[in-house]
Amino acid sequence: MKTVNIGDFKVSEKIVIDGTKTSWDLEASKDELEYQLEKTRKKLGKLQDTLYAHGKYGVLVCLQGMDTAGKDSLIREVFKDFNARGVVVYSFKTPTALEKRHDYLWRHYIALPERGKFGVFNRTHYENVLVTRVHPEYILGENLPDVNSLEDINEEFWDKRFQQINDFEKTIQQNGTIIFKFFLNLSKEEQKQRQLRRLDKPEKNWKFSPGDLDERELWGEYQKCYQDAINRTSKPHAPWYLIPSDDKRTARVIVAEIMLQELQKYKDIKEPELDDDIKAKISEYRERLKND
Question: Is 27 strand, coil or helix?
Fold first, then answer.
């Protein structure tokens, strides 16, 4: 099986999304991919235990992608061996009335992982420059002071919003949050096949919504918005990774390997040592317990 090279997926220069890969060959069978994922996620789970004891970093994992890109199953499979207390998943839907009474980043800010934990955003703060950019009428529902009509939602508006997102990520990174941003890069043909499976299999019917087909018709618009968002916000402190996702098993292995390799670079993440005076009395404490 081929080694996952982070440089193949990390966005470090401007990309043209039509020219990026939606499939990737790791030269491995299905069984080999599942075995590799199992090994990697166990290492991640052990690393998370150390992260929790260390208590100085939190990890934010952002997952974005078109409908059927595989976000839910990736979360289920990649984080399977984590201690349940060490990872929290948030799925951001249409903003509630309460959330609309705050700025658009508020609900994401309060969901950030505490130090020692992983937080997974299934759809993220980037929806505010993706869905709302394809459907700018949604912005009107935010009741913003300087936005009274669609004409006010211009390029200057989006420039400010991208700057706000970059500032948000820079602030949390400087305060101990390690950020991973994964775009699950799916081909339009593979999405079609996955949507058909949702219709063909009764147990999958619940996942289908007629609105999914309406959004599929806007595929080109979404791709342009993803390209712009990725190019504007892939920074050294919060890079984007483009994950070829036509094959779900391969995508899961790549995501898990990227996280493991990057987190292993943090040499200061280690379990804290006991104070010298406590270590000196370990034998005494042990005897007290034995004689209890």
Answer: coil
DSSP 12: -
Judging by beta carbons within 10 Å of its beta carbon (0-12, 13-18, 19+), is residue 89 exposed, middle or buried? middle
Q: Using the predicted structure, report yes or no on whether residue 204 has a pLDDT greater than 90.
A: no
Instruction: Report the C-alpha gap between 101 and 144 in whole angstroms.
Output: 10
H or E element that contains 78: helix 71-78
Tens digit of pLDDT for each residue in 84-110?
889 999 999 999 999 999 999 999 999
Whether 148 contacts 216, CB under 8 Å: no
The residue ranking higher by pLDDT, 84 or 175, is 175
For every residue of 179-236, DSSP letters joined together read: EEEEEEE--HHHHHHHHHHHHHSGGGGGG--HHHHHHHTTHHHHHHHHHHHHHHH-BT
241 Cβ contact list (under 8 Å, min separation 6): 6, 9, 10, 11, 180, 181, 182, 183, 255, 258
User: Considering only CA atoms, which of 66, 49, 55 is closest in space to residue 183?
Assistant: 66
- Whether pLDDT at 132 is above 80: yes
In which region does residue 108 sit, left (phi positive, over 0), alpha (psi from -120 to 50) or beta (all else)? alpha
**pLDDT score recorded for residue 280:** 81
Per DSSP, what are the bridge partners of residue 90? 121
DSSP H or E run through 274? none
> Per-residue pLDDT for 184 more than 90?
yes
**Contact status, residue 75 vs residue 107, Cβ threshold 8 Å:** no
Q: Are 37 and 78 in contact (CB under 8 A)?
A: yes
Q: Check residue 214 and give its pLDDT.
A: 92
